[in-house]
Amino acid sequence: MTTKPHDIAPDTTHGEFWDTFYSAEDRVWSGRPNAALVREVTGLTPGHALDLGCGEGADAIWLARQGWRVTAVDVSQVALDRGAGHAASEGVGDRIEWQPHDLSVSFPAGVFDLVSTYFLHSWLELPRERILRSAAAAVAPGGVLLITGHAGFPSWATDPDPDIHFPTPEEVLAGLDLAEGEWDVLVSEVHEEKMTDPEGKPATRIDNTVKVRRR
């Protein structure tokens, strides 16, 4: 996310935008799970996980391979169908339920032992704090909420949009409005992730992670 696209029609829905985004290529993402997911979830007892904004399903598939039952949610049906295909080819299709939701309008029902979301950012208007509060409300007693977001632009960005604000971990926690005495903050940090730029060269990006557990 560097420069805002200039060709977004004012009445474009989230589903239309992201279906177009995913339809542009046969595979958009690497197929590898997010590093923060692997780092923070390894060691947790598998249960029922909710993956919000699952994209092409790499995180959901990794969770399923670790023994989790997963509800994977995205606004793009193109991404969901692609994720379901990848899960079937990995032999874990029966452990993942794929649900279409525009999270600004609807939210999956139920409570979960793990609720995770990665890079819940959009060029379209998105009630991010409200969605994350809904995510917290969906965490079962003893369960974990894991949120990773961008803390800055990638190192190759030469003309970043100056109007974009990336929330700090402190701002994410404040926006969750967690009830005092009901949660433990396990992680609240900024970290550098190594990656490759669009030309395949080594690059970095600064992200932040918040991990809280309901008592």
UniProtKB/TrEMBL annotation:
It comes from the Bacteria. Keywords: Methyltransferase, S-adenosyl-L-methionine, Transferase. GO terms for biological process: methylation. GO terms for molecular function: methyltransferase activity. Pfam families: Methyltransf_25. Residues 50-143 form the Methyltransferase domain. This is Methyltransferase type 12.
